[in-house]
Write a structure and sequence with these properties.
By secondary structure, the chain is of the alpha/beta class. It has three domains: 170 residues, no CATH class; 119 residues, NAD(P)-binding Rossmann-like Domain (Rossmann fold), CATH 3.40.50.720; 301 residues, NAD(P)-binding Rossmann-like Domain (Rossmann fold), CATH 3.40.50.720. 45% of the residues lie in helices and 13% in strands. Strands 10-9-8-11-12-13-18-22-21 form a nine-stranded mixed beta sheet, sandwiched between helices. Helix 4 packs across helix 5. The chain starts with a helix and ends in a 14-residue tail after the last helix. 41% of the residues are buried.
């Protein structure tokens, strides 16, 4: 044992290491030897009845062995036994072995019947191949006990060799590995099996915890590992078995359950991780390297929304699609997802060359793809935008370019107006002029009863889109959603930086709440909304063609809860290791966000998590006058004038009074 362990630690070379890299021809040779050994042992055990070998049996074995060995290995090859990796041998390989060996067993029994019939009709010569003859001149059929014993021994030897690596690993590799408890049985079984098979992963699975199976399976074993019960057993098992890591492997786990596991593990100084690729777990293709620490997205307390477009609703296929703000968090994810839907061309428009260049780092986006055209352009540059639309004539437009940082836009309101309002108008007018089929504006929940210039500018951008929809055949829509986790400037990266620096972590108000979603979820909603534009916007009984879509975002999340979870997941104790400091709301910041105005009401769509509401009516003449005044105020960088005009045109805008530097 010591020698094998030394081999395993010296350069990672061991018997198990060699087993996972056995070439096919070597496996075939080993199987041939094992089949021959099984047949020989079967005759030897049969010989015990006769207190020794019958010479005719020796002759029969010599005649029969080459045929059995070659036929058996050939069947293994035909049934693709040698295509799989030895390290992942399992029930499928065992099934192949049983079927192939049973076929040879059936052939031997058939050979007995055929030999007896041929001998009865004097069709066999003196040698009577492969049977041989006994002293009375009759043939010696293959003993049925030999056939049965050979069937059993072949399965044991060939199948046992397939599982020998797993047996050796369980005997020699487990010292020095981390004790791991797996939460979840359905997917956890595959995770445990992978841990038992993987060499050098550092995991020693101890058993399972599953809240749904605590009453029925507690006390049973899976792969020799105990099922301890439900989540209430978590503290006891961690303490009693010295658990160093807990791996959550549940497809239907809630954010509250993950938070409960994370809190328990933190209190007991135990790491908690999760396996994000549930599809891989359920298909059996589990990679232990996919196990990662639990992130804040896992404890949001709501299920992410990710739907696929059916072929009948796929408005992207064979179309030219243009995305503004393509280098941003949402824009780049929209690009990645629409590339999966078969567009003819994708035009990436952005004013930041670095952000567009960084798209090439994403595995799903190859800027060398002949379908992708990258354009450096500012949405506020009418001439450049018109030139881009005249060249490509996009049929679908996603307008994601926008300024979004609330405090910065309070200090620079003219930039919010130029980009969010006039940039939207320029792109929308270009889309309408060149005959685009669909135009989807990315909006925000901050546009509802806005208290800041950024939110008011996005609300005005929605009004610009509704105005364009009244005179254009282009289908216009806007999509509202809340905060996006992981996007540039979002709260989570800021909080993580503060935690990494040892604190303090700042919060503007202890009661502040926000709606949250992930970047892929937000992009998916935008794409789904585009499919619903045509389905609802062309209703001849509804004169309003513009559409406003809202995601069912669940309950808002308290920022204080978000902070405490982040600190806990980082391995610290909130308020003790990392201080939390309340600093008061920033300019224009609201305590609570809404997704609808008082006059808006939701209706369900065919996608259960997406709702639709009719946008507010727009007085085109009044809007045109307000935009002219806004343009002049923005050119003069007159913040007070901008806020006054916004208050006149956006009825529920309650501006935050930002103090002048001289005050």
């Amino acid at each position: 044992m010591g020698k094998i362990r030394r081999m395993a630690t010296k350069g990672r070379i061991s018997f198990s290491y060699w087993l996972q890299r056995v070439p096919r021809w070597t496996l075939m040779l080993i199987d041939a030897v094992l089949v021959a050994v099984a047949l020989t042992l079967a005759y030897a055990l049969r010989g015990l009845e006769d207190k020794g070998w019958i010479p005719a049996h020796i002759q029969q074995l010599a005649h029969l062995a080459p045929w059995v060995v070659l036929s058996q290995v050939a069947l293994f090859y035909v049934f693709a036994l040698y295509r799989g990796l030895l390290r992942y041998a399992g029930i499928i390989e065992l099934r192949v072995i049983v079927v192939a060996v049973s076929m040879i067993t059936g052939a031997l029994l058939g050979l007995n019947v055929l030999g007896a019939w041929a001998d009865q009709h004097h069709l066999l010569n003196e040698s009577a191949w492969p049977f041989g003859r006994v002293h009375n001149g009759s043939i010696l059929i293959i003993p049925h006990s030999v056939i049965g014993i050979n069937w059993m021994l072949t399965i044991i030897l060939v199948g046992g060799f397939r599982f020998s690596r797993r047996i050796i690993l369980s005997m020699f590799r487990r010292r020095g590995h981390r004790n791991v408890l797996i939460v979840g049985l359905t997917n956890g079984e595959a995770v445990a099996r992978a841990m038992l098979q993987e060499d050098g992963d550092g995991y020693e699975p101890i058993g399972f915890i599953d809240p749904s199976e605590e009453a029925t399976l507690a006390g049973t074993k899976i792969h020799g590992l105990s099922v301890f019960g439900g989540l209430d057993q978590l503290p006891r098992v961690i303490d009693e078995y010295g658990i160093e890591e807990v791996v959550v492997a549940m497809s239907d786990v809630s954010g509250a359950q993950i938070a409960q596991v994370a809190d328990t593990c933190r209190s007991l100084d135990t790491r908690v991780k999760t396996l994000p690729s549930v599809a891989n777990v359920m298909s059996g293709h589990v990679s232990i390297s996919a196990i990662r620490p639990v992130m804040i997205e896992d404890v949001l307390g709501r299920e992410p929304v990710r739907m696929q477009l059916s072929e009948s609703l796929n408005y992207i296929r064979d179309r030219c699609v243009l995305v503004t703000g393509a280098g941003g968090s949402i824009g780049s994810e929209i690009v990645a997802q629409i590339l999966e839907l078969g567009p003819a061309r994708v035009v990436l428009v952005g004013r930041g060359e670095n952000s567009l260049f960084e798209l090439s780092a994403r595995p799903s986006i190859d800027l060398r793809d002949g379908r992708i055209f990258t354009v450096i352009a500012d949405a506020r540059d009418r001439d450049k935008i018109n030139a881009v639309f005249d060249r490509h004539h996009p049929q679908v437009v996603f307008h994601a370019a926008a300024h979004k940082h609330v405090p910065l836009m309070e200090m620079n309101p003219e930039e919010a107006i130029k980009n969010n309002v006039f940039g939207t108008r320029i792109v929308a007018q270009a889309a309408a002029r060149t005959g685009a089929e669909r135009f989807i504006l990315i909006s925000t929940d901050k546009a509802v009863q806005p208290t800041n210039v950024m939110g008011a500018s996005k609300r005005l951008a929605e009004m610009v889109v509704w105005s364009e929809s009244e005179t254009s055949p282009t289908e216009f829509a806007a999509v509202r959603f809340g905060n996006v986790l992981g996007s540039r400037g979002s709260v989570v990266p800021t909080l993580k930086r503060q935690i990494e620096q040892g604190g303090p972590v700042t919060i503007t108000h202890r009661d502040m709440t926000r709606f949250f979603m992930t970047i892929p979820e937000a992009a998916n909603l935008v794409i789904q909304a585009g499919a619903l534009v045509s389905a609802t916007g062309t209703d001849s009984t509804d004169p309003q063609k513009g559409r406003l879509f809202v995601l069912d975002m669940g309950e808002p999340i308290r920022i204080m809860d978000l902070i405490t979870n982040l600190i806990s997941l980082s391995g610290f104790e909130p308020g003790k290791d990392i201080e939390i400091v309340e600093i008061g709301p920033r300019p224009g910041e609201k305590i609570h966000e809404e997704l609808l105005t008082a006059d808006e009401s939701l209706k369900a769509t065919q996608f259960g998590k997406i709702f639709i509401t009719a946008p507010e009516s727009v007085n085109r003449d009044r809007l045109t006058t307000a935009l002219e005044d806004l343009e002049q105020a923005a050119q003069q960088a007159d913040g007070d004038a901008i806020r006054n005009i916004l208050k006149q045109i956006v009825p529920d805008y309650l501006p935050f009074v930002f103090p002048h530097p001289s005050a």
